[in-house]
Amino acid sequence: MPSSPVAFLALALWFPLTFVLFARMAPLRALLVSVLGGYLLLPPLVAFDLPLLPALDKLAIPAIASYLAAWTIRGERAPLFGAGIWAALCLALIIGGGVGTALTNGDARFVGGGVVLPGLSLRDGLSMVINILPPLLIWALGVRYVRSPSDLRELLGALVAAMLLYAVPMLVEVRMSPQLNVWVYGYFQHQFDQMVRFGGYRPIVFLEHGIWVALLTYMAAHAAALLTRLSAPERRRRLLAALLALLVMVVLCRTLAAWIYALLFVPLVLAAPPWLIGRVAVAMAAAVFCYPLLRLYGLVPIDWMLEMAGKVSVDRASSLQYRFDNERVLLEHVQMRPLFGWGEWNRNHVFDVDGSILTVTDGEWIIVMSSRGVVGFAGRFGLLVLAVLRAAQAARRAVNQGAGGQAPLLFAGTALMLAVNMVDLVPNATMTPLTWLLAGALLGAAQSAGELAEDPAATPEDPGPARTLI
């Protein structure tokens, strides 16, 4: 872990700053500024490591501070188990799965070369549960504070505004090379050669990798496209300019996956009916959830994907082949302990006879599957699938009831954004605070819409052209 006084000072100051935000802003806006701002601006790879607490990093500090500020300043609690039986089941799998992983991995593992990996104890299981709590708190806060289409629109507007501001340091790094984390916090957070693609630099700013920046920039462009379509004519020109600016930044991120997402899904959001957008989102989310099974039985068109990647460049095809090879080896390893996985301390990896690690865990799905097994995967990814399904159902219900305005398109378009993020979790570990916030927000808004539909006397909040951060 890097040693940077400035980085630790920034982390420490974000905690009281979050309390100030909740004292002076509406709770949803305070949550968005704390969580999104903290993720974009705080230093990566550093954390306060205190006993009986999760690693207090750029994800955990905004999450815990927001939860405590909402509770103490606003007097509002966001219970984890308050979003329905299916969400509760997913949470039970996530939390209980950590204990199950510890209980089924008590044996030491001898991997060769005299290397012995320790067995897990109940203390390790408790640590796994504690470490997953911060993202779950963000999810719960999303459920609590996003209760209407207007709230969803506020979230999308905050994302667009944040990434438009972030475009300034991104452009600096595109021109001068990725150096901002070095200049501000005193260290570089990844391998510099991975920030060079297609004849130029791709920005990383204060995130984990340039791929993360590219995905968030695409998601902001997706949100801008959705807001452009929903906006009144007098505001559409400004939102269209924001969309074009963000699409330019997507190109400058020099990440093939983000280019593909923009080419496929921005036109869909701008032109397709809500029912089609919703169905595409559900199909994509279901495909990601079933991906381990499809991969296990050879139903993923690997050869075709490699052929398509080869048409872009030999390097991209080689990188994709390397990922597929790792997935195959790790899946074989997972089959030895399928329910709860192999746990911590590199036990989820495959080793050479001399004790060196042979595998690389790139995708979030294989990280979760190898370390937490089917139970952990079903809980974590099930929570994301549930959000997409509930949002698509809310969009369809609004259409069937003859609802006008932005509600059907907002639900379907935001569900598609989360589904695209889920697709990116197959090759990459891009599970960010925005992922958890979107999942909670969609579930909360859809749940509220369902309650209004069941109560004819209830008066829904007007989802008309509300002002957002942009």
UniProtKB/TrEMBL annotation:
Coiled-coil positions: none
Source species, domain of life: Bacteria
UniProt entry keywords in alphabetical sequence: Membrane, Transmembrane, Transmembrane helix
UniProt keyword Membrane present: yes
Keyword Transmembrane helix: yes
Entry's transmembrane regions: 6-23, 30-48, 54-73, 80-105, 125-143, 155-172, 209-227, 239-264, 276-298
Name of the featured protein: O-Antigen ligase
Organism for this UniProt entry: Paracoccus solventivorans
Organism lineage string: Bacteria, Pseudomonadati, Pseudomonadota, Alphaproteobacteria, Rhodobacterales
